[in-house]
């Protein structure tokens, strides 16, 4: 039984299209990898620049009053020693800020002040290690004027619109927020919350 002319034509077109499709998929994959590498390099370079600016500000703040931070300013460094987490904190939680650092929610207290210091970070970059955080862990926030140590009190998973975690507190607390689940395709539906309280403060006395 012979092949219908239309069927032969379709098969011929399919054979010609297959290599083109393969090249398109390869190119798309290559470009995606290039973009991922570019973002990683950009983040690394930004963290180094932010660290340098922050250390300079810490040195200058020893003798000059610290100005109020503006969006994008490097205001501190977050460290969780047990998890090996160390990242710069910038003022504001815009997408641009969160791509390169952990963001301080502008309406929340500043590190070292009374109230609730709220920091947000992406679950697939800076805050990925929070998968392993546990109650009792030590968290250190280095600001321009002092180093503050916090102790983890509780962990929770809440709805994305649970704004109560942002509310002020009577003491000195630190709240870390990231999306949940940590491994999820697309926008994650919930939020992972780490709540802590400040246990010590070491003021800077000079350069």
Write the layout of secondary structure elements.
Layout (H helix, E strand, L loop, with lengths): L4 H57 L12 E7 L4 E7 L3 H6 L1 E3 L10 E6 L17 E5 L3 E14 L12 E9 L9 E14 L4
Parallel strand pairs: 2-3, 4-7
Antiparallel strand pairs: 1-2, 1-5, 3-4, 5-6, 6-8, 7-8
Give a concise summary.
The chain has 207 residues and is of the alpha+beta class. It has a single domain, classed as Beta Barrel (Sortase, Chain: A).
Instruction: Tell me the fraction of residues in β-strands, as a range.
Output: 25-35%
Low-confidence stretches: none
Anisotropy-based shape: globular
Q: Average pLDDT, to the nearest integer?
A: 84
Structural class: alpha+beta
Classified in CATH, the superfamily is Sortase
Description:
The protein has an eight-stranded mixed β-barrel. It has one domain (about 45-205): Sortase, Chain: A (Beta Barrel). It is about 30% helix and about 30% strand. The protein has helices at about 5-60, 95-100, and strands at about 75-80, 85-90, 100-105, 115-120, 140, 145-160, 170-180, 190-205. The model has no long low-confidence stretch (mean pLDDT about 85). It is an alpha+beta fold.
